[in-house]
Design a protein that fits this description.
This protein is 39% helix and 18% strand. It is α/β, with parallel strands linked by helices. It has two domains: 203 residues, 3-Layer(aba) Sandwich (Rossmann fold); 70 residues, rRNA adenine dimethylase, C-terminal domain (Helicase, Ruva Protein, domain 3, Orthogonal Bundle). Bound molecules: S-adenosylmethionine.
Amino acid sequence: MTEQFAAGVLAIQRPSVLAQVLREAGFSFKKQLGQNFLVDQHVLDQIIQAANLTSTAGVLEVGPGAGVVTQRLAAVAGRVVAVEKDASLRPVLERVLAPFPNVEVVYGDFLQVDLAALWREHFEGCDSVRVIANLPYYVTTPILFRLLEAGLPIAQIIVMVQREVADRMAAKPGGKDFGALTLAVQYYAEVERILRVPPGAFMPSPDVESAVVRLTMRVEPPVSGVSAEELFRVVRAAFSMRRKTLLNNLSQGLGLCKPVCTAMLEQAGIAPVRRGETLSLEEFAAVARAWKCVTRRGEP
Ligand code: SAM
């Protein structure tokens, strides 16, 4: 599976080479930026395989670090744009990525980058664009939501996340991991778990297990008759207190009196004593549609 790189490409995925290149650049790891660089060939292979890239595909990478994944992406994709917050990695990335003219590194905070402008500038000629990231764990959720809600033509998002975040993303109703994050991710994308990754796959090793997840973006929302904003207003209210019933959480969170809230849940075909974590996305959509009727009637 491993592509044979041309002569002159640094084998940065080898821990000894990575350590030497970082040392020569005077680089020191910043824990606060979630810097755990991937050094496991098998995991790298699996990520590249999951991305299924062609020479006309574009890749947006969040946080290239020392360029371990970036090199492999550049060898198969048409265009790679990587956004890195830590400008002290510039000498490392310039050296490691020198043989790849199809890569551009943008230095800045991914949460601040103008994504629409970046898209126009770099990905116009690409037939599909995937986002690939070994995400810094301290900022996983905001980065994911930025991508999911960006309204950009992203085909797939392949991300390394903390294993418990992967469990929440892929959870089914009724389980302990099912919650607002599950519903939000599954509203925008189909979720597949690709592989579990042990701490030893990184330099330095994190304290937690990780997992690679592939999100295939939906072309149409999976539920109808309700906007994302309306749906997630109801979802947020339903999960505001974990052990409370839907009736209690929704009446408080949506500002409805209990008889109106009970009638709304009955209209949606949902027992008021159920808890948020037992409802599917479709059932939440039914509640949100019933809530729209209530708000139209102006009932308290
Ligand atoms: N992709 C590399 C790899 O797999 O070896 C590095 C992954 S490391 C877990 C996360 C990277 O994201 C680091 O290089 C870190 O500096 C960068 N980073 C952290 N916060 C960021 C942000 N807000 N925007 C862009 N990059 C960020």
